Amino acid sequence: MSDIRRIDPGPRLSEASIYGERMYLSGMIPEDTSQDIAGQAKQALSEIDALLTKGGSDRRKILSAVIWLADIGDFAAMNAVWDAWVVGGQTPARATVQAKLNDPKRKIEIMVVAAR
Questions:
Q1: How far is CA 73 from the centre of its chain?
Q2: Counting Cβ atoms within 10 Å, is residue 85 exposed (0-12), middle (13-18) or buried (19+)?
Q3: Which of 9, 17, 38, 43 has the fewest CB atoms within 10 Å, i.e. the most exposed one?
Q4: In the beta sheet, which residues pair with residue 28?
Q5: Contact present, 26 and 16 (Cβ < 8 Å)
Q6: 3-state DSSP of 77-110
Q7: Using 50, 70 and 90 to split pLDDT, how confident is the model at 1?
Q8: What is the reported pTM?
Q9: CA-CA distance, 18 to 20, in Å (whole number)?
């Protein structure tokens, strides 16, 4: 049985957990909530890139993604950022839903599972 490795564990959650050849990321959020959806999406995706690198993976190996939007009206603008970021031919399974996020200024949260 494989050991579980945790990246940046804290008292409530780890930024990511690795089990075997899979990496499970916590929801990645933007730090600068003054930006519009495009800016916030870019920040969250940048956090995903950095965490994947820390765990020995990259965006080409993302298996699935869940995206929560505070306003589903931001769907098209978020997709424009996503489409520029995701690797063509390597797109993951994905779901996008509207949700009330824990900070009213936050417009997006993204969680992914990736292979390593």
A1: 19
A2: middle
A3: 9
A4: 110
A5: yes
A6: HHHHHHHHHCCCCCCCEEEEEECCCCCCCCCEEE
A7: low
A8: 0.95
A9: 6
